[in-house]
Amino acid sequence: MRRLIRWLLDAGPILTLAAIAGAGSFTHIRDTAAEHGQDGWMAWAVAVCVDLTCVMAARERQRDRHTGRTRNGWISWPTLVLIAGIVLSLAANLNQADPSPWGWITAATPAGAFLVAVSMLERRAASPRPESSPASSSVPEIAPEPVPAFDAEQDGPSSELLDYARRVAKEYQTAHSKPISRDTLRARLGVSHQLASDLLRILRISPDAL
């Protein structure tokens, strides 16, 4: 219930703006279509086509961003469709305006507000995921190896564990371009905090550690 309330408080204003602005723009497009020979249900159909085309194009732009299809430039088919829908909507709004500067401004407000609301929803849908998700997916999981924690002949981590820790640290630095932390090393090796600290200290002072 709390999650629903937070979502309504967060997205409610944008959805309300989109609904009101869309209705205003819809009315202007319908009236313009009716004045130019599209009577009855056809006037409503033209208005629905223009507004839904803008929404559909915005969603396609967001989907292209996720799939990487926009890396070659910002101009794409969904972008061109969105621009065309905006131009048609603004043209219909201005056609219904009083022939004065303020008349044009007030008549264009619903189309502009609708575009802002759609762009805000598109921006939220395209927000990047938490940093940990792509990082964890890009780093291959290392299968646990049965390595002894301590060497029986010396007081400190065993050579097998040290080699394993060195390999984990190298792979982490290659993937993230930064040294591995103690907590990450502890989680990857499944050792105690103290042992992870000892291993990290040895790796940092060893010439061939990283």
TrEMBL record:
InterPro entries: DUF2637
Pfam families: DUF2637
Keyword Membrane: yes
Highest taxon of the lineage: Bacteria
Swiss-Prot/TrEMBL keywords: Membrane, Transmembrane, Transmembrane helix
Annotated region (Disordered), positions in chain: 127-156
Protein name: DUF2637 domain-containing protein
Organism encoding this protein: Streptosporangium saharense
Upper lineage: Bacteria, Bacillati, Actinomycetota, Actinomycetes, Streptosporangiales
